[in-house]
Amino acid sequence: MSLGLYAYVITRDRPDSLAGFRSIAHRGLALVVAEVDLDRFTGLDLDEPTEDSRLAVLVREHDAVVRAVFQLEPVLPLRFGTVLDGADAAVRLLGARHEEALAWLDRVDGRREWGLRVRAAAPEPVDLRDVSGTAYLAQRRRRLTAAEDARRAASAVHRAMTSHAAESTCRDHAGDLLLEAAYLVDTGREADFHAEIHRLTGELGLPAEITGPWPPYSFTKLEFADA
Amino acid sequence: MTGRLGQVDHRPSSLADTLERVLDKGVVIVGDIAVCVVDIELLTLRVRLFIASAQTAREMGMDWWTNDPFFTPGAVDGTTGMKELAEQNAELRDRVASLERVLTEGRP
């Protein structure tokens, strides 16, 4: 069995909050870590992770630790699979990226991430038995126009939700997915944020899915180099 | 905060959503101090493929033609389709056979 120092999040050094975790502190920052058996991370079957696959279990564990710290303090989640070369390396990292990490912690403080997915409503089935060619083409044009309207409506939802959020990000999407976005929302504004999603998607007749709250995973996509 | 609220569906974090965030987002530490145990680039790529396949083909818009009667006449009505085609086929065979008979008989 080979052991390694697995790192989960960078957070502020608050000994009271972090009492239940192993953390390495340096100048007001802390890195939440755990000694792990590195063998658990080798030979992961990546092809079709099911809920009980080793990868899924490890990823859920990672998420659980990130969330546990996130309940107490603002966090910068590290990417899955980050193992440090000992406690000295952790101190070097926190020292080298001190200002940057503090600035990012301020940026996500008091905010949570919410995911939003908007899909196109399923089209009405068309009865072709007594439809002429012209009528079919007219019908097809109406459907294409409706799809274009739905895309515009989804963009309007994103603009509106962005104005209710501190930050937002949009992902690539395909097919009947019209919007796949994440928003970083002040906890004090979450009620308004959700009310607005319900109001807008209801008004526009678009089916929507919300996920969250998440730690700010989508808003800490950055690289810290060992300076 | 679960369950349907009007049109908005609030769901618990699915494996695909969690994988996407945990594997593809977050702070990446580069340099000598971190050793990544897993080949994260490979992992991310595979997980993207998984997320794509975890969403159904319908969500990906891969079967846009199935609801389009222009391409799938059987989709007009679930009860039509193979059975009707078979009947139509049998009827046409009969008509071809009778036309062939007429032609053969009509020959001098």
Automatic annotation (TrEMBL), chain A:
It comes from the Bacteria. Keywords: Gas vesicle. Transmembrane segments: none annotated. This is GvpL/GvpF family gas vesicle protein. It is found in: Gas vesicle. Belongs to the gas vesicle GvpF/GvpL family. InterPro entries: GvpL/GvpF. Its main location: other.
